Amino acid sequence: MLIFTIFIAFLLITNKINAADDEGKGASASSTDVSVGCFSGDSSVLLVNGGQKSIGHLRTGDRLLAVDHFNISSSEMFLMLDKETSKIVMFYTFTTASNHQISLTGLHLMPIASSNEKLLYIAARDIQLGDQFYVSINNRLETSPIVNITNELKQGYFAPLTMTGTILVNNIYASCFASVTNHELAQMFMAPFRWYYQLMRYTTVTDPFDNNHSDGIHWFVKLIYDFMSFLQPSGLQVS
């Protein structure tokens, strides 16, 4: 863990130096070829204290409801993978028989209840009518079939990452990951970053990943994407 922490600290320092150089050269810090899946800006999450919060207003350390081994539990937002407050984007909007609704970009992973009762994570663009979402009803997870799928243009999107790698958005169980084929693999890749975050929280550093950065994909996402492209390219999805 110590080695990973030192490595991540080195990456953070290197990135700040490179960002300063790019700024001096007039380069755009948000330019990237990585495609990230996100939730629409009109989405909301449930906080541990019982309140609701717009997904775009989440801040580092916010305690919110997520899912861990099919149990609704508390988690913590520690990294905003991507955000755009004003960009207009096409979303897949899903409505369930229980009248729950969620809007996602096409590469975002969603957990689906399969016929053999195993959990499958499927990209939003591949979800079909009749597939079963997990929804929160009276603080318990229940399955509900999708009865309507539409494509909608909406303004703004956000991709918060929690410690569990899951999140309840509009009371629907969702993965925090996109552009990958395997939710568990993505969560494993993020372990060093979770360790680093936990260690830094014991110091005076309250936002080790600078989640208040300007709109655009976090540079960590590009780093992880490049690493996975080299190590296991079959685990990535592209638009």
From TrEMBL:
SUPFAM superfamilies assigned: Hedgehog/intein (Hint) domain
Record's keyword annotation contains Signal: yes
Gene Ontology terms describing biological process: cell-cell signaling; intein-mediated protein splicing; protein autoprocessing; system development
Residue stretches making up the Hint domain: 36-137
Span of the signal peptide: 1-19
InterPro entries: Hedgehog (IPR001657), Hedgehog_Hint (IPR001767), Hedgehog_Signaling (IPR050387), Hint_dom_N (IPR003587), Hint_dom_sf (IPR036844), Intein_N (IPR006141)
Keywords assigned by UniProt, alphabetized: Developmental protein, Signal
One of the Pfam families matching this protein, by short name: Hint
SMART domains xref list: HintN (SM00306)
Record field: transmembrane: none
UniProt cross-references to PANTHER family, sorted A to Z: HEDGEHOG, PROTEIN HEDGEHOG
Protein name: Hint domain-containing protein
Organism: Adineta ricciae (Rotifer)
